[in-house]
Amino acid sequence: MDNYLFDGGRITKMEVDYEPACDEKIPLAKELAKKNPDAFHEAIEIMLQLEKQTRLGADMVSCSRVLVAICQICLQTGNWNALNEYVSLLVRRRSQLKQAVVKMIQECCTYVDKTPDKESKLKLIDTLRSVTEGKIYVEIERARLTKILADIKEADGDVVGAAAVMEELQVETYGSMDKREKVELILEQMRLCLLKEDYVSTQIISKKISIKFFDDPAQHDLKLKFYNLMIQLNRDTSFLNTSRHYQAIAEPPRKKAPETDESSTGDEKKKSEDKKTKDEDDKKSEPATALEPEIELTDAQKKELTDKLVCAVIYCVLAPYDNEQSDMMAHLSKNKKLEDVPAYKEILRLFMSKELINFDTFNADFGMVLAENDMFKDNTKHGKKCITELKDRLIEHNIRIIAMYYSRLHLTRMSELLNLPTNRCEEYLSKLANSDTIRVKIDRPAGIIYFTTKKSASDILNNWATDVNQLMSLVNKTCHLINKEECVYSVMCAVED
User: Fold this and answer.
1) Cβ(79)–Cβ(124) under 8 Å?
2) Nearest alpha-carbon partner for 124 in 142, 112, 133, 141
């Protein structure tokens, strides 16, 4: 097996071992180019002849050494144009060995930071990206080079160009790339798309990351970066999703579960796997156990997590009412950390209660507290939107409570309860009726509002079945009475005769 090497998943037979020739000629060529810069082409020619021999002889190791040596000679003499030229030439040669190309590209990637000026750097990156295009075995190197190019474009102020370059990468299909590096590149794509305000592309790219990846405590920094980007994406379009993202950030990192010892024997590993399987089966049949212990946090970190939880509460309250929003409020109210911020716990309780909320009282009790948050700054567009949404949520909450306790109500009385003009009351009633939150009818000439309760499909069917039974009972009774009258009439006719 010594004379066989693997190239791109195939077993390639090495016909000749050129290691002695490489040991002799590579140092000779390097020394020649170092002592006499004019002899650069002569040194390269020696290497090209040796490269042809190693390539045709399928000596992958020696061919890799030769390609790397050619790049090193170009770097040593500072001939960057020759480096670009020979990299392009060597990659295109017939029957070029893939592993040798990988070694050469990896060597050239280390030269990017050694370029004397920006123009040489961009030209080298462009050369390396062009020769690696479409080649799976150098996809990682191409992705890293693309990231460097995007950073250069962003530093020059070309955010659109940087985003376009990064979006060319289909990182999620790279099987050889480490999962963490893959997620970092996808997050970079999201960030650049947000900078150029391409929210649709950002939403599509975010779907490429599985949330389960962030369950690993080692990826906590990437988790924070991901959810912060998602908050920027959804904070103006979906308050409910924004609240969900803040809740994910507010969860403190947990300690990583201890890993099994890799030095254990095969029998021990098998026993541990069997035990693990048995434990998993037992867990399925038993109630959920406690989570892994939390990592000890500093006071600053605890305050930051509390601030994120406060944001989660506020955005949940600002979200339009539906079953999902109601469930989320109930889930948040059970969080023990809300005890550290009693004002926001009380706000959550008010919106969950079945009582009317007076706007003036609410503003007097919580106005100063809410004004401390960035989302209620009236000098920003988002702040003005949040203030408006909070007023709407208060009014909609009061209307739902009124609909719960009243079946009929005068419009003027509702105007008094809501402290709104009658035309504004009608607007909110129409809005909630269109969203199917309440069932309401308005008799405008009489100025009376009629509330009806929602009925489930089973209730409607039961009512229909009851009506049908009553109808059939009336039909049977009517038929019985008709038969009775016919009998009486026939008897009377017989008596008269």
Assistant:
1) no
2) 112
Give per-residue burial for 21-41: e unless 16+ CB within 10 Å, then b. Answer: bbeebbeebbebbeeeeebbe
- Residues 453 and 438: their CA atoms lie apart, in Å, by 8
Phi, psi dihedral angles at 57 (to 5 degrees): -85, 0
Spatial distance between the Cα atoms of 359 and 309, rounded to a whole number of angstroms:
24
Residue 290: the pLDDT is 44
What pLDDT sits at residue 491?
87
- Angle at 66 (CA atoms; ends 63, 71), nearest 5 degrees: 130
Backbone angles phi, psi at 164, to 5 degrees: -65, -40
Q: What is the pTM of this model?
A: 0.78
Inter-residue contact 183 to 210 (CB < 8 Å): no
What pLDDT, on the 0 to 100 scale, is given for residue 122? 92
Q: How many CA atoms within 13 Å lie on the side-chain side of 225?
A: 15
Q: Give the pair of three-digit tokens for residue 13.
A: 């037979």
Sites in the chain below the pLDDT cut of 70: 1-15, 254-295, 497
Q: How much is the pLDDT for 436?
A: 83
